[in-house]
Amino acid sequence: MKLSNSRPSRVGRNPFVHRLRLTVTETIKLGLMSVTVFPVRLLLVSFFMLLAWPFAFAASLGRSEFVIEPQSWWRRLTDLCLRVIMRAMWFCGGFHWIKVKGERAAPSEVPILTVAPHSSYFDAIPVTMTMCSIVTKLESRSIPVWGTLISYIRPVFVFRVDQDSRRKTVEEIKRRAQSGGEWPQIMIFPEGTCTNRSGLILYKAGAFIPGLPVQPVVLRYPNQLDTVTWTWQGPGAFKILWLTLCQPHNPMEIEYLPVYTPSNEEKENPALFANNVRRLMAKALELPLTELSFDDRDIILSKGPLCIQDYSGLLELNQLVCRLGLRAGTSGTVLDEQAHRARKLQGGRLTLEEFGQFLSLPVTETLAQVHSLFDESGDGQIDARHFVVALSTVHRPSESMETLRLAFRMFESEEEDGEVLEDDLAAVLEIMLGVKEAELSGLFLTLGRPDTGRITYDELVHYIEEYPHFIRDCLDYKDHPRKFCCVRRQCCNGHNHDKDD
């Protein structure tokens, strides 16, 4: 699979990984704070959270989720009490002074606030300071104590089990946004997930579909030791709470940028609207734009014995198949059915029109881009089996052995003896790993089968189990990191892998 020359690689620093390294001095301070300040702060934070619960519960009684009613005097008083209690809670947690820049626009002027970067559950601070609504999963309502506080701010709940959830969420956002300020402002984190603040990932379009003015809000945590970042790979939720409560002070900045009014073109194109707002916020934050999205996280965090080495081509494919609607509709059953049809073709190559028929999709520019990724020879034809391997890889990047099993079923010989050719296996591994010019001679030499040029799935699995660092130590491909390393590694067969010797 080749990467389009018209699009640069989207891989920079991984935004879904946070590595926290403590110096000796910081470790000593942490130990002292853990037995002195931490227990007191944890007790106070818990107290204020429990204190807030009866106020939120009482104010939520008898309130409709779909109709906004006039605020009675006692509900306004409850709202004020909750703001004071929540601010006291954050103060006890070490967020003593929260610097606020700019002015928040009125709900009647701007119904939606777009907040970034989203990197921690401490991003709830501006929510509790403003009592804005948020978009959150329905399961959040079931969290003890905190779920009642979430329900109080009248969030837009996302029903993830409902396949039509995205459409319903967008419709509810539009309904509230077009109420003329009757509903509370909606505070939306358009990245859709937590990152490490190394850059702004692609925004989801939900906040921008209504085509109404939005106010960008940027968050900063200018602390020397980053204990607040909570993302997909790194310290867990409790560890972050412990480390943060052990800091003498946790600075935070909230900046309200000028209201952004979309042009007619942006109103018609929410993706353009979202990207332009993202650029504006990245400039204010002095952060780079990262051309990764929430849907890319599994690919860039892939694990397993055949984890992806170069994400560029697979990330591009993932973006295209999402645009075609293939990612959402893909399951193990669908992949098995596609693999069965691809095997029947017996290596027959497909034109763009035939590829569209294979996927039951009309020929579009996006489909043509997908087709071109697999047109290695440039003759306008592709092997459908290569596409199925790639689709399986982006759909379940951490289940590489399942993708490998699928590939063996498609590429096995006509005798159905389970064996595949060396060249076919090399092509499969190139797609799964995102590499070029994979060389398997060392593998076949180790197996004692350098002349047959064939291998079964069970043999390969046994080999990988015996040599778990097979990619690093035993596989050769173009631009392998080993080729630039001064330290020589021993190959799996006991011989030095440096070809210059």
Approximately how much helix is present in the residues? 40-55%
Radius of gyration, whole Å: 27 Å
What count of helical segments does DSSP give?
20
| N-to-C span | 31 Å
Tally the beta strands: 11
Query: In what range is the share of β-strand residues?
Result: 5-15%
Specify the biggest β-sheet.
7 strands, mixed
Report mean pLDDT, rounded to a whole number.
86
Shape: globular
Secondary-structure-based class equals alpha/beta
Lateral arrangement of strands in the main beta sheet: 1-7-6-2-5-3-4
- Low-confidence spans: pLDDT under 50, at least 5 residues? 5-10, 486-491, 493-501
Number of individual domains: 2
Subcellular location: Membrane
Protein name: Lysophosphatidylcholine acyltransferase 1-like
Family: Belongs to the 1-acyl-sn-glycerol-3-phosphate acyltransferase family.
GO molecular function: 1-acylglycerophosphocholine O-acyltransferase activity; calcium ion binding; lysophosphatidic acid acyltransferase activity
Structural description of this entry:
The protein is built from 20 helices and eleven strands. Helices cover 43% and strands 8% of the residues. By secondary structure, the chain is α/β, with parallel strands linked by helices. It starts with 23 loop residues before the first helix and ends in a 27-residue tail after the last helix. It has helices at 24-35, 37-60, 73-92, 124-130, 146-152, 165-177, 237-245, 264-268, 270-285, 297-300, 312-324, 332-344, 352-359, 365-373, 384-395, 400-411, 422-433, 441-446, 457-466, 470-474; strands at 98-101, 112-116, 133-137, 156-158, 186-188, 214-220, 252-256, 349-350, 382-383, 419-421, 454-456. The chain folds into two domains: 24-295, no CATH class; 301-484, no CATH class. The protein has a seven-stranded mixed beta sheet, with helices on one face. Strand 3 (133-137), helix 5 (146-152) and strand 4 form a beta-alpha-beta unit.
